[in-house]
TrEMBL record:
Upper classification of the organism: Bacteria, Pseudomonadati, Bacteroidota, Flavobacteriia, Flavobacteriales
Alphabetized UniProt keyword annotations: Cell membrane, Membrane, Transmembrane, Transmembrane helix
UniProt membrane topology term: Multi-pass membrane protein
Keyword Transmembrane helix: yes
Subcellular location: Cell inner membrane
Cell membrane in keyword set: yes
GO cellular component, one term: plasma membrane
Protein name: Sugar MFS transporter
Length: 473
């Protein structure tokens, strides 16, 4: 969908962009709370790993069903967002998300696992609407050349939310002590607070004048987007990426609880979980700089070093860990810089390099014990960072009038976050045959596919590899 702002809207997008970035932050924060809920609900309801992963199944399954519904309406009736506008679409997503948070109150009051899953499904539907509207809207708030860099930047603040969620959200639910009583009521107040904050953000967005955009292209019918091989492969790429990232994040606390790994409690493990998501935040900020082709390579390196140092100190100020406990992360920062240099600011090449590193880290986590296994898992976050934006832009590159259709198919592929974790959960339940540690073989296959996709695109999409930023809309 090619859209252009009207002439009086092209001056200053700073305020709208800041407002939408705040939304990205809250969106990331609440999404990452799932990683806190999984071990909490597992103990509360005495669930198997498979049953506890229904949290992610319901949440990310809503992405698929919501996107499928949107695609169906768009196919038969025309693009809903083009009719009601991005602002109303974003507000609809926020209100639906707030409703999902409110539903945690009756779920906790009656202490019924099915009600928790229902609340998560509604929450996921709201975030689906935000996924469809907000990402596209950010790409429109400025020039097309800077769209990829801008999307990385807003997703970096989304990752900031996922970084502080394990610490703040973990404190709200688990408390600060290592010994705590598991009760259903612990989720009532936190999620009511989240609902209130979301509604405040909705009120802010409602009162901020946001630019409106109109389509210039006629709507297309049929499934023409599927004639492009990069789109078909990209759909599976998004499936594997979201599935792999969510599965790893979902199992970190359970993984670190194991005596042969670290034997940590949830109250301590949540700080290490924050390191995993904090790595994604650092990587996205660095990716926004690396993929910006308007600055020289020397300035890029200076900006990246300063940014990495600043964000690392920010994470250090948030998590309840000593510098010695966090110092391992500096090794991954250096490795991340080397990976960016090898990638040469080319989206597909960088994607293949990052995915290859995560395959090695996963295998290390499976065959080692103690700190080495822990560091291997936690170090994956910084290499997950640029994957979604890179897979997304590579998948829709060259689609022309089928770009909107291709985008909706890519959003449907977030279904991977529902499927991969429950598959890993089923394997984790086979302990002592395989167990939690060896269940990480599932995301290994996910990242191997992403390596293949990156290599394929680096050979087939030469225009993208030579610095052409491609936006979804």
């Amino acid at each position: 969908m090619n859209t252009v702002p009207s002439k009086n809207q092209q001056s200053n997008y700073t305020i709208p962009l800041i407002t939408i970035t705040l939304l990205f932050f809250m969106w990331g924060f609440i999404t990452c709370m799932n990683d806190i809920l999984i071990p909490y609900l597992k103990k509360l309801f005495e669930l198997t790993f498979f049953e506890s992963m229904l949290v992610q199944f319901c949440f990310f399954g809503a992405y698929f069903l919501g996107s499928l519904l949107y695609f169906t309406i768009s196919y038969f009736k025309g693009d809903p967002i083009n009719k009601i506008g991005y602002k109303k679409g974003i507000l609809t997503g926020i209100v639906l998300s707030a409703l999902g948070c409110v539903l945690f109150y009756p779920a906790a009051t009656f202490s019924v696992y099915g009600l928790f899953l229902g609340a998560l499904f509604v929450l996921g539907l709201g975030f689906t609407m935000l996924q469809i509207t907000a990402n596209a809207y950010v790409s429109l708030l400025g020039s097309e050349d800077s769209a990829s860099s801008r999307l990385n930047m807003t997703n970096a603040f989304n990752a900031f939310g996922t970084t502080i969620a394990p610490v703040l959200g973990g404190f709200l639910i688990f408390g600060s002590s290592h010994e705590h009583t598991i009760t259903a009521e612990a989720t009532r107040i936190p999620y009511l607070v989240f609902a209130g904050i979301l509604l405040l953000v909705a009120l802010l967005i409602y009162n901020v004048k946001l630019p409106s955009f109109q389509t210039e292209e006629t709507e297309t019918k049929g499934l023409g987007a599927l004639k492009f091989p990069q789109l078909k492969l990209g759909v599976l790429g998004i499936f594997c990426y979201v599935g792999g990232e969510v599965a790893v994040g979902s199992f970190i606390i359970s993984f670190l609880e194991k005596d042969y790994i670290m034997g940590l409690s949830e109250a301590v493990s949540k700080n290490y979980l924050a390191m995993y998501w904090g790595g994604a935040m650092i990587g996205r900020f660095l990716g926004a700089i690396s993929l910006n082709h308007t600055i020289s390579q020397t300035k890029k390196m200076i900006y990246m070093v300063v940014t990495a140092a600043a964000v690392f100190l920010l994470i250090y100020s948030i998590v309840d860990l000593t510098f010695d406990q966090m110092s391992f992360f500096l090794v991954f920062l250096v490795l991340n810089f080397i990976a960016f240099l090898i990638g040469k600011s080319a989206p597909a090449r960088t994607l293949a390099v990052f995915a290859s590193i995560n395959v090695v880290l996963l295998i290390s986590a499976m065959v080692n014990q103690g700190e080495l296994a822990m560091y291997s898992i936690l170090g994956m976050g910084i290499f997950n960072s640029i994957m979604f934006s890179n897979i997304y832009t590579l998948g829709i590159s060259g689609l022309g009038k089928y770009t909107s259709q291709g985008s909706s198919l890519l959003v449907m592929a977030i279904l991977g976050g529902a499927i991969v974790p429950i598959v890993q959960g089923a394997i984790a339940d086979t302990d002592p045959v395989y167990g939690v540690q060896h269940s990480f073989i599932v995301p290994v296959f996910c990242y191997l596919y992403i390596v293949f996709f990156g290599i394929y695109c680096s050979r087939k999409l030469k225009n993208v590899e030579h610095g052409s930023n491609v936006s979804g809309h």
